[in-house]
Write a structure and sequence with these properties.
With about 300 residues, the chain is α/β, with parallel strands linked by helices. Helices cover about 45% and strands about 25% of the residues. The strands form 2 sheets. The protein has an 8-stranded mixed beta sheet with strand order 4-3-5-10-6-9-7-8, with helices on both faces. The chain has a two-stranded antiparallel ribbon with strand order 1-2. Helix 1 crosses helix 4. The longest helix has 24 residues. It is elongated and about 80 Å long. It starts with 7 loop residues before the first helix and ends with a helix.
Length: about 300
């Protein structure tokens, strides 16, 4: 068979069905009927001379040949998505950098990280937040260039990702300066019964803090648990409670004297990572940020 005989439209339909595992869902996403979708996949199988799926119950599973074809289809259409991503918004030498960040990540940290690009008139930034797995899916589909996270991604041969450590941030206990000026608390020993606002259960920091309190037999009075660091910053500023968070989140309030650093623990830290997927072509703006981190 010559390359001209390979119908890439049929290959694309196969790729979408293989990704979802269901004809119904794929047909809905592709705005076509199940029968039309099945017919085009059968034509691809006839052209290749091999079955690509085997049905088990109501799910379609790939045959051995189907897995091989899927690997190539991933490369073909993944590269196509990468191409569209690079061309989107690009004109007269403009560079678009699409950044995803987990919802629990400090907005101040994100701004500090991208700050070198803010004065570059050739760079257009797209920044969105969400759940880590959703962002990683978009990264693998070349809809994002990088994902900023506060947890490392485990190695998975089925999900090729590169996780670069960017640094860590000391975690501090902060409170209203009017009440806590020149006072210091030990974490967690002095927190029994004190009103506190804490990161939500999904935040990596929360598990560290809860483990410290449990080991010490200390139980603060929980007044709020908040995933979003921007909201936790507002609560820390306006509630009068103590709050546990990375100092970078409240850097402006600490500088102005509105909040006071009351204590910290060297057993608590937030770690930051830049997660990328293999690309055939590099993004100049992203390379600048990653190389800058390596030289710091």
């Amino acid at each position: 068979m010559n390359l001209e005989q390979l119908n890439f439209h049929h290959l694309f339909y196969f790729w979408r069905v293989a990704k979802t595992g269901h004809l119904t869902q794929a047909a809905r996403e592709l705005h076509t009927s199940q029968s039309a979708l099945s017919a085009q996949i059968r034509q691809l199988e006839d052209r290749l001379g091999e079955p690509l799926f085997q049905r088990e119950n109501r799910r379609l599973n790939l045959t051995e040949i189907g897995q091989i074809v899927l690997a190539y289809a991933d490369n073909i259409f993944g590269l196509g998505q990468e191409l569209l991503g690079r061309l989107e918004g690009r004109s007269e030498g403009m560079i678009r950098l699409r950044v995803g960040s987990v919802a629990t990540l400090s907005r101040n940290y994100q701004e500090n990280w991208i700050r070198p690009l803010l004065a570059n008139p050739k760079v257009t930034l797209t920044i969105e937040s969400g759940l880590l797995n959703d962002l990683l899916d978009r990264l693998l589909q070349h809809q994002l260039d990088v994902v900023l996270a506060n947890e490392a991604v485990p190695t998975d041969p089925n999900r090729p990702l590169h996780c670069q450590f960017l640094g860590s941030q000391t975690i501090s206990l902060v409170g209203p300066a009017k009440r806590w000026k020149n006072r210091t608390l030990r974490i967690p020993e002095d927190l029994q019964g004190l009103e506190m606002a804490l990161p939500g259960p999904r935040h990596s920091l929360r598990a560290q803090f809860d483990a410290l309190c449990l080991t010490a037999g200390v139980k603060p009075r929980l007044r709020a648990e908040i995933d979003d660091m921007a909201m936790l910053r507002l609560i820390a500023r306006d509630s009068g409670w103590l709050a546990l968070l990375p100092e970078v989140v409240v850097q402006d309030e600490l500088k102005s004297g509105l909040l006071q650093r009351v204590g910290f623990s060297d057993q608590l830290a937030e770690y930051f990572y830049a997660i990328t997927s293999p690309r055939r072509h590099t993004n100049e703006a992203l390379e600048l940020l990653l190389k800058r981190r390596k030289t710091e």
